[in-house]
Amino acid sequence: MASIEDLFGKVEALIASDSPNNEKILLTLNEILLLAPDDADALRAKVVSLIQLQKHNQALEIINSKAALKDCLFEKAYCLYRLNR
């Protein structure tokens, strides 16, 4: 199994590519979260990836369920806006 550092390197490479694949980014972030469930950076990146994939309900659920994401006010407001709430 890859280390967290290796997985974050993979995420960075995917993001830096000419056409980032948010599905692959999300899969890699899920691998990181299996190793470190409360990693704030991985959680934030997952929220952004879900927003990019227009999965606003899932992003909002994560924001509301994790104390580490209480400062993600912009992302929360954007999800609420996109969900017409």
Describe the model.
The protein is an all-alpha fold and 85 residues long. Helices cover 71% and strands 0% of the residues. It has 5 helices and no strands. The longest helix is centred in the middle third of the chain and has 14 residues, at 22-35. It is globular, with a radius of gyration of 13 Å.
Brief descriptors of the model:
85 residues, 0% strand
Layout of strands and helices, then pairs:
Layout: H1 4-16, H2 22-35, H3 40-52, H4 56-65, H5 73-82
Helix pairs in contact: 1-2, 2-3, 3-4, 4-5
Total strands: the figure is 0
The H/E string reads HHHHH
Proportion of strand residues: under 5%
End-to-end separation in angstroms reads: 41 Å
User: Residue ranges: pLDDT <50 for 5 or more in a row?
Assistant: none
Write down the overall geometry. Answer: globular
The largest sheet, given as strand count, sense and whether it forms a barrel, is:
none
- Report the mean per-residue pLDDT as an integer: 94
Concise structural overview:
The protein has 85 residues and is an all-alpha fold. It is built from five helices and no strands. The chain is globular and about 40 Å long.
